[in-house]
Amino acid sequence: MPLLEVNDLQVEFRTHDAAVRAVNGVSFTLEKGETLGIVGESGSGKSQSVLAMLGLLASNGRASGRAMYRGENLIGMTNRAMNRIRGNRLSMIFQDPMSSLNPYLTIERQMTEVLELHRNVTRREAKKRAISMLEAVRIPEAAHRIGQYPHELSGGMRQRVMIAMALLCEPEVLFADEPTTALDVTVQAQILQLLRNLQHDFGTSIVLITHDLGVVAGLCEKVMVMYGGRVMEQCDANTLFAKPSHPYTIGLLRALPRLDQDGGELTGIPGNPPNMAHPPAGCPFHERCADASDECAENAPALQSVDGTHWLRACHRPVAAMKTRYQETSHV
C-alpha cells in the first residue's frame, strides 16, 4: 500500500467575481523513500494541491477528493486531527523562509516549540535536539546561531533552518515548495545535496514543488507535470527526459539550457497561462499549443496510459506524432 495515495483532488476558491478551480482531478501515489516532483508554471496548481492536503488553504478555498495517508483521508480532516499529523508525520518547507519564520522569535523558540508540542519533551531536551538538527543541515556554530533571529541569518541559512524545523520530528513525508528559489547556484546545489542526504538517513518521502526541471533531474524518481490545474503528463523522471509525449512537457524541455550542448537556440512557450477564473474550453493548453486541433479546443483530454504501465498523459494527439516533433525540433 502506498504511503500517500491521492485520488481526484479538487481545489476551488470562491471569489467575488467567480469560482476559481485551481486544481482539477489530481491523482498520484507516493511510496516510502520516494521523491515525486510536481512541475509547472506559476498558477498551475502545484502549491494549492499540497496546501489542500495539509489543511492550509485560504479561508475561501475548498478541497474535495481523497488524500489517503495511513488509512486516513487528509481532505476534510478536522483541525484537531490534522494538528497531530502536520509538523509531525507530515512536514512542509515553504517557499520563502523569511516570511515563513517568525521575525519576533529566536530560531531556538521556533524549533523547540515543534518538539514540545509533538514529542512532549522538556525545553532543555528540545534545544539539544534542535542544535543537533541544525548541525545536520550544515549550519556552522549551531549552538550560537540557534539564539539568533531570522534577520541575522543569510537566505541560505534561513532555508536550512526551515529544513531543520521540518525534519525535527523525522516526518514520513516532506513537502518542499520551491526550496531553492532565490538562492544562488552554489547554495542551491548544497540544499539539494542536503535533501538527498537527509532522505537517505531518515527514509523520508519527498514531494518537491518546482518549476525547474534541472532540480527534478537531480532529485526525483517520479514527475507530475501540471498546467491549468490539471495533470498533463505523469511518469518516472528518466522517461520524462528521454521520451516526453505531451506538447507542454516538450515545450518545457525545449526551454531548458543544457551543458552538454554546444550552442543551440532555446525556444520559449508563446502566450500566457490561462485565467482560471475564466478557463478555456477543452484542453487548458490548446491556446498555446502549436499542435492543437479543433478537438483540443472543444474537449478536455483525460489522462491515458502510453505504454500500458504508469506513463500517462492528457493529449488528443498520437504519441508517435509528439515523439517525432520532439526529435525534429528539440536541441535537448
TrEMBL record:
Query: What's a single GO MF annotation on this record?
Result: ATP binding
Q: Name one GO biological process term.
A: peptide transport
Q: Which UniProt keywords apply?
A: ATP-binding, Cell inner membrane, Cell membrane, Membrane, Nucleotide-binding, Transport
What Pfam families is this protein classified in?
ABC_tran (PF00005), oligo_HPY (PF08352)
ABC transporter domain residues? 4-253
Name the SMART domains for this protein. Answer: AAA
The source's domain of life comes to: Bacteria
Q: Which CDD domains match?
A: ABC_NikE_OppD_transporters
Location in or out of the cell? Cell inner membrane
- May I have one GO cellular component term? plasma membrane
Gene3D superfamilies assigned to the protein according to its UniProt record, in alphabetical order: P-loop containing nucleotide triphosphate hydrolases
Membrane topology designation:
Peripheral membrane protein
Predominant place of localization: membrane
Q: Which family does it belong to?
A: Belongs to the ABC transporter superfamily.
Q: What is this protein called?
A: Oligopeptide/dipeptide ABC transporter ATPase
Highest lineage ranks of the organism?
Bacteria, Pseudomonadati, Pseudomonadota, Betaproteobacteria, Burkholderiales
